[in-house]
Design brief:
Layout lengths: L4 H6 L14 H9 L13 H11 L6 E3 L6 E3 L17 E7 L4 H13 L2 E3 L2 E3 L3 E5 L5 H14 L3 E5 L3 H11 L5 E5 L4 H11 L3 E4 L3 H13 L5 E4 L5 H17 L10 E2 L8 H13 L4 E4 L4 H14 L12 E5 L8 E5 L2 H14 L3 E6 L6 H6 L5 H11 L9 E4 L7 H7 L4 E4 L7 H7 L3
Parallel strand pairs: 3-6, 3-12, 6-7, 7-8, 8-9, 9-10, 11-12, 14-15, 14-16, 16-17
Antiparallel strand pairs: 1-2, 4-5, 13-15
Helix pairs in contact: 5-6, 6-7, 10-11, 12-16, 14-15
Length: 448
C-alpha cells in the first residue's frame, strides 16, 4: 500500500537542504506521495530508507522505459483504473511494423512516414514512438540487416520481434545500446530470452497462450532477475484482447496481483486487414489499456486521430495544458509593433496567436504564467491582476524592444487598466476586444 506524505517524511534525512529542488523535506515527502517527485532527487536518503520507500512507493503496474536518450519513452506506472480518479501516467506508445520479408522500398517508405508524420498541437509535438522490427524469415543475418537499416534511418525506440533467440541475438548485436524491447519470451524460449535481456539490460515482453501462462512467464523472468517486463496476453481477437486488458489492469491495481503488474502490448495490426478497422481497434486500446500498440502502417489519416486521442486521454485532468511564458513574436514585429498580453492557457494562446497571424499585423504577444488558467478564471483567482501583470511586463524586457509603450490587455480584464497604468509607469494601457475573433479588425485600426 502506498505511504502517506508523513510516513515518507519519517524516512527522509530531514536536512531541509533544498538540493532536491524543493525547500523542505516535508514538502518533498508530500510531492513524493503525490507522484510529483522522484526519490532519486534526494542526495542524502539512506540506502535502507531508499529500499523501503522504493518498495512502498512503487506503482502496482511497473514503469518500463524503452529506448535510450531523448527518444526513450515510458509505459506503465499506472495507479488508477479510470482517468477521473487521478490521472493516467504514461501515454500509450505507438509503433509501426516493418518485417524482413518486405521489399526494401516498402521498409523505406514506412520509416519515412514514421520520421515525417510529426504534428504540433497546443504547443506539443505529437509523433509515433517506435519501430517494431519483425523477423518473418527466421534468418538471423537477414534480420540483422533490417535492424541495421532501421537504426541508420531513425533514432527512435525499437521493438525486436522474434521467438527465435538466435534471431534476437543477431538484432541485439547491432542495437543493444538503444535498449530495445525484446519480443517475446514464451514458454518454449523463456530461459534463453531472459538471458539475452539480462546480458543486454533490455526490457522484455512475454507472450502466453492465456493469462495463466503469462503469469507463469513473468515469474520465470523475475527469478532470473528481470524486472522490466511487458505483457502480451496472446489474444488476437478484439473481444478477448479487450477483456484481457481490463483483467490485467484490474488484477494489478485492485488485487495487487504482482505477476500481472506490468504494462501491456497490443497488436491491432494482427487483428484485421482493414486499415480503418485497425485504427478503430487501436483507438480502443489507447483508452483501455495498452502500454504499446503496434500498427501495420503510419498513414496520417490514421495516426493523427490516434495521437490526438492519446493527448486528450493522458492529459492530467487536474492540470490544464499550459504554454511556456515569455515574449512571442508574430508576423516579424519591430520596435513600432503593438504589444498584447494574455494568459498561458494553451487554448487561449493558440486562439489569440492565430488571430494575430490572421491580422497580418506585426505584433508582440506576452504570455504570462497563470498556472494554465484562462483569462477570466485567472483574473477571478487573483493570478491575472494589475500588480502581477505589471511585474511580468517589467521583468520580460519587452520595454527594450518597442518604442511605443502601449500595452493591449484582454477586454475581459478591462477593470485592471487603471491599476496597470499606476503600476506600469511609462506605459499606456489599451483595452482590446473580449473575443479573439475581433482581434484582427482591432489591430488593423490601431495607430501606434
Amino acid at each position: 500500500m502506498a505511504l502517506t506524505g508523513i510516513q515518507i517524511f519519517k524516512l527522509l534525512p530531514k536536512t531541509n537542504c533544498g538540493k532536491c529542488g524543493i525547500p523542505t523535506c516535508l514538502a518533498f515527502a508530500m510531492n513524493l506521495a503525490a507522484g510529483k517527485a522522484e526519490l532519486a532527487a534526494c542526495p542524502f536518503v539512506s540506502e535502507e530508507s531508499k529500499a523501503q520507500l522504493a518498495e512502498a512507493s512503487a506503482p502496482p503496474i511497473r514503469r518500463v522505459t524503452i529506448g535510450s536518450g531523448v527518444n526513450a519513452f515510458k509505459i506503465g506506472g499506472e495507479t488508477v483504473m479510470f482517468r477521473h480518479e487521478k490521472r493516467f501516467e504514461n501515454p500509450t506508445g505507438i509503433a509501426v511494423l516493418v518485417t524482413d520479408s518486405m521489399p526494401h522500398q516498402e521498409v523505406a517508405a514506412r520509416i519515412d512516414r514514421f520520421n515525417k508524420n510529426v504534428y504540433v498541437r497546443v504547443g506539443l509535438k505529437l509523433h509515433a514512438d517506435a519501430l517494431a522490427i519483425k523477423s518473418v524469415s527466421g534468418n538471423p543475418a537477414k534480420f540483422g540487416a533490417l535492424v541495421e537499416t532501421v537504426i541508420k534511418a531513425t533514432d527512435s525506440g525499437l521493438i525486436l520481434m522474434s521467438e527465435n533467440p538466435e534471431v534476437l541475438t543477431a538484432g541485439l548485436k547491432i542495437c543493444a545500446a538503444r535498449k530495445p524491447l525484446i519480443y517475446a519470451a514464451t514458454k518454449a524460449n523463456a530461459e534463453a530470452v531472459a538471458k539475452l535481456a539480462k546480458d543486454n539490460s533490455c526490457p522484455v515482453a512475454v507472450k502466453g497462450a492465456n493469462l495463466e501462462e503469462v503469469a507463469e512467464l513473468t515469474g520465470i523472468l523475475n527469478k532470473a532477475g528481470i524486472q522490466d517486463i511487458v505483457i502480451d496476453s496472446g489474444a488476437r481477437t478484439v473481444k478477448q484482447a479487450f477483456q484481457d486488458e481490463i483483467i490485467i489492469r484490474g488484477l494489478a491495481l485492485q488485487k495487487k496481483f504482482k505477476p500481472l503488474g506490468y504494462p501491456t502490448i497490443a497488436f491491432p495490426c494482427e487483428m484485421t486487414d482493414n486499415p480503418l478497422k485497425e485504427a478503430l481497434i487501436a483507438s480502443m486500446f489507447v483508452a483501455k489499456y495498452a502500454g504499446i500498440i503496434v500498427l501495420s502502417d503510419l498513414k496520417g489519416e490514421v495516426l493523427f486521430p490516434l495521437l490526438v486521442e492519446r493527448l486528450n486521454i493522458f492529459t492530467d485532468p487536474q492540470r490544464p495544458l499550459a504554454t511556456t511564458p515569455g515574449i512571442y513574436e508574430i508576423n516579424n514585429p519591430n520596435e513600432n509593433s503593438p504589444v498584447l498580453i494574455t494568459t498561458n492557457f494553451s487554448l487561449t494562446y493558440f486562439i489569440v496567436s492565430g488571430e494575430i497571424e490572421t491580422s497580418k499585423v506585426p505584433s508582440y504577444l506576452l504570455i504570462m504564467d497563470t498556472e494554465g488558467l484562462s483569462v477570466l478564471t485567472a483574473w477571478a483567482a487573483g493570478k491575472f491582476g494589475a500588480d502581477l501583470m505589471a511585474a511580468f511586463v517589467n521583468k520580460s524586457g519587452i520595454g527594450n524592444k518597442v518604442k511605443n509603450h502601449k500595452l493591449i490587455i484582454p477586454g475581459y480584464s478591462a477593470s485592471e487598466s487603471g491599476g496597470l497604468e499606476e503600476d506600469l509607469k511609462g506605459w499606456e494601457i489599451l483595452v482590446g476586444p473580449r473575443e479573439g475573433s475581433h482581434i484582427p479588425a482591432y489591430l488593423r485600426t490601431l495607430k501606434l
